[in-house]
Amino acid sequence: MPYPRVIPHSDGAGHVDILGDGVPSDWLGRRVWCYGAQSYRPFGTAAEFTVVPLALAVPLPETVSFEQGACLGIPGITAHRAVHVAGPVADRIVLIQGGAGAVGQCAVQLAQRAGALVLATVRSASDEAVARRAGAHHVLSVDTDLIERVRALAPEGVHHIVEVAFGANVRIDLEMLAVGGTIATYATDADTPAIPFWPLLFKNIRVCFVGSDDFPTEAKTAAARELNEALTAGWSGFKIAERIPLEDIATAHERVEVPVSRGRVIVLP
Predict the structure, then answer these.
(1) Is 230 helix (H, G, I), strand (E, B) or coil?
(2) CA distance 11 to 67
(3) pLDDT by residue (tens digit) across 74-99?
(4) Is the domain 12-74+217-268 a CATH 2.60.120.10 member?
């Protein structure tokens, strides 16, 4: 490990309890959510207290719960970057693969707020309601003639795809993309996926690989601002599946690995 002791987890929410040198006094006692607490750093949020640079603490709107705030960090910032990394999406057609997942829900909401026509794929009927609640204009099952249904909605192809399973979906994505389209992928089912080089080249497809630890500072700042704006404007955020005490955090990890119900798992000190 890079440090002799690591406290895991990067996301959380709470009150500012103490300030470092040079931090304005009006931050004391503020409601905040944080991200990146354990990115290149040893002390994350799986604790009663954590310390972060001021840039990683984001004021939490009064109307938003700590539970929602604790869920925003990595999924929300990843989603924002995946939506916007290739340029503005206003009046574009954006497809979110995995629209009911944590990143997927944020991507759906952020793309819709940015003026895109949003298509979202899901794996089950129960997931369809989740993607619609996030703001998708059209929700498509991955099991029912996906390419044909997308072509019916976007005859010239979609302009941008946010991809959760690059290895499994890159060939399907290629069929659905317009010439000059883009893929922003933040995850893959295979470490070394095969890439259909020539078909991607002939359609002039750009592929952007997005990893949240190393986004530009201005991208993270914009993501935090727009996530707050979405929540204050009425986005309901995430369903909380389970609330687990900090002393039972191993159980929380098991629930993430093998979910017993749809939604986010949060840890409460």
Answers:
(1) helix
(2) 11
(3) 999 999 999 999 999 999 999 999 99
(4) no
